Amino acid sequence: MAKSKTTKAKVERLQEQGVLHRRAEDVTDELFRDCDFLDPHDLLQVKYEMLRRVRIDRCSVSTAAQTFGLSRVSYYEIHTAWERDGLAGLLPKKRGPHGGHKLTDEIVLYLVAQHTANPSLKLETLVERVKAQFNIDVHPRSIDRVLQRGKKNSAR
User: CB-based contacts of 110: which residues, under 8 Å, 6+ apart?
Assistant: First the structure.
């Protein structure tokens, strides 16, 4: 069966979703070469098939990783995610911090209360108050974001 070409639109959608295999040209597995159902640009398909190739077909990790255009380290990370979360573990994860690590709920409530009591307080004053009350340093922009978020939520 002839392999159909991946359209530019599909590549763009895969990239938007964070599942574009940036090294699709390095996928040499025969299933991806001979079957129009599988697309080497679709990283989810590539990850799943690599895991299956090792687990079911008993291919070595090194060979499978190379055949699917990934590293051995990537294989082990993917395998760990699969074991932990199943198919959902193959989905991309948001990179970087996942929320404010310094601004706990308690500090956010404190900031909102301070700002509500006196909306004219400068950010620098709130930074000083958080330092005095909680003994942590917070950037003024972080406080500004918290207060802006509070305004958006109360407007709903």
Answer: 130, 133, 134
Q: Could you tell me if 95 and 106 are in contact, meaning their C-beta atoms sit under 8 angstroms apart?
A: no
Spatial CB neighbours of 127, under 8 Å, sequence gap ≥ 6: 137, 138, 139, 140, 143
Q: Which domains does the chain have, with CATH numbers?
A: 8-90 (no CATH), 94-146 (1.10.10)
Residue 104 in contact with residue 135, Cβ under 8 Å? no
Which pLDDT score, from 0 to 100, does residue 144 have?
Answer: 93
Amino acid letter, 87: L
CB 76 within 8 A of CB 33: no
Structure confidence at residue 1 (pLDDT): 40
Segments in the chain below pLDDT 70? 1-5, 97-100, 151-156
